[in-house]
Every structure is written in C-alpha cells, then in structure tokens.
C-alpha cells in the first residue's frame, strides 16, 4: 500500500455494531438504549446517535467509531 492509501483509510469512518460498543463502554444493551431514549431518566444527549444500517427503523444499527471514542473520552474527563 502506498502512503496515500493509508491516508485514505485513516479518514474513512468506521461503523461499530452494538456489541462492540457494549464491549468498549462496558455498558449493557439496556443501559445503552436508556442513554439513547429521550424518555428515560438516564438519557444522555451527548451519547452518539445510532445510524440505521439497513435504512429502516427496526433494522440493524451501528455507531460511528470516532463519536463513540469521543464520548468515552468525555466520560473519563468528567
């Protein structure tokens, strides 16, 4: 690979599936959904927004890796 190939790979956003986000944050599935639910008392508006990978609500979801990393960093400094 050339240097430009490595640079191109560095700027491509990576999508993390829910299980990977659970592993990285140390939170359970229900805790993550509580953070995303505006009606929950645990709602965190700074938590990364989910993206629908299949293009429809109720399908597979993912999270942008850089946003998850930033959120984890913000929790460390809080």
Automatic annotation (TrEMBL):
The record ties this protein, via InterPro entries, to:
AlpA, Prophage_regulatory_activator
Q: What is this protein called?
A: AlpA family phage regulatory protein
Record the organism: Pseudomonas coleopterorum
């Amino acid at each position: 690979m050339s240097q430009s190939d490595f640079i191109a790979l560095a700027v491509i956003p990576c999508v993390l599936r829910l299980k990977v986000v659970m592993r990285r944050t140390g939170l359970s599935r229900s805790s993550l959904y509580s953070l995303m639910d505006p009606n929950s008392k645990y709602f965190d508006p700074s938590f990364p927004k989910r993206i629908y990978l299949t293009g429809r609500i109720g399908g597979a979801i993912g999270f942008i890796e850089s946003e998850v990393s930033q959120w984890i960093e913000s929790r460390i400094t809080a």
